């Protein structure tokens, strides 16, 4: 369902970030008896069909013991994900904040994506860059103090 949207993105450059409620490897959950999430199959199909990359899978030594995004009781898991296209993005990094979001059992995640230089011949993309956009890096004062 998302793959066609990704292919329609300018220069096929896209990213997806959010609570996907899935683990892809056994190291992404602290519960040894927990089976891998059944949601992983559609997510992996999406990555394959859209030629995407999951930042957790690309991160060496990622583990629920050190980088969990969800905690409930004694169980910890990596459920929040960042995926991006292989086009227009050179590399990426993912981080987990050591705090919980109020009224939830998740830690906030952040991602840094290193973009490649747009081609000069892609006037639609260059025009997009010149259009004013919202700056989501500016946070309200109350969130900065967390």
What distinguishing features does this structure have?
Deoxyribonuclease I, Chain A, 146 residues, two-stranded antiparallel sheet, alpha+beta, disordered C terminus, three-stranded antiparallel β-sheet
Explained architecture:
It is a single chain. The protein is α+β, with helices and mostly antiparallel strands and 146 residues long. The chain has one domain (3-119): Deoxyribonuclease I, Chain A (4-Layer Sandwich), CATH 3.60.10.10. Helices cover 25% and strands 24% of the residues. It has 6 helices and 7 strands, in the order αβαβααβββββαα. The protein has helices at residues 3-8, 40-49, 55-58, 64-67, 123-130, 141-144; strands at 15-19, 52-54, 70-72, 75-77, 80-85, 89-96, 109-115. The protein has a 3-stranded antiparallel beta sheet. Strands 3-4 form a two-stranded antiparallel sheet. A two-stranded antiparallel ribbon has the order 6-7. Strand 3 (70-72) and strand 4 (75-77) form a beta hairpin. The radius of gyration is 17 Å and the shape is globular. The model is unreliable at 131-146 (pLDDT under 50).
What does this entry show, briefly?
The chain has 146 residues and is an alpha+beta fold. The protein has helices at residues 3-8, 40-49, 55-58, 64-67, 123-130, 141-144; strands at residues 15-19, 52-54, 70-72, 75-77, 80-85, 89-96, 109-115. Strand 3 (70-72) and strand 4 (75-77) form a beta hairpin.
CATH architecture: 4-Layer Sandwich
What is the residue-mean pLDDT, rounded to a whole number?
79
Largest sheet: 3 strands, antiparallel
Q: For the record, give the distance between the C-alpha atoms at the N and C termini, rounded to a whole number.
A: 36 Å
Measured by DSSP, the beta-strand proportion falls in 15-25%
Q: What would the principal axes of the Cα set say about the shape?
A: globular
């Amino acid at each position: 369902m998302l793959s066609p949207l990704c292919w329609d993105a300018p220069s096929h450059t896209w990213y997806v970030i959010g609570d996907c409620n899935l683990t892809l490897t056994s190291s992404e959950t602290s519960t040894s008896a927990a089976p891998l999430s059944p949601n992983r199959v559609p997510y992996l199909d999406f990555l394959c069909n859209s030629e995407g990359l999951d930042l957790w899978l690309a991160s060496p030594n990622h583990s629920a013991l050190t980088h969990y995004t969800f905690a409930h009781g004694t169980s910890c898991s990596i459920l929040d994900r960042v995926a991006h296209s292989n086009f227009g993005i050179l590399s990426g990094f993912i981080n987990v904040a050591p705090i919980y979001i109020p009224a939830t059992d998740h830690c906030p995640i952040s991602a840094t994506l290193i973009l490649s230089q747009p081609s000069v011949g892609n006037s639609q993309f260059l025009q997009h860059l010149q259009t004013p956009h919202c700056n989501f890096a500016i946070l309200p004062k109350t969130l900065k103090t967390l």
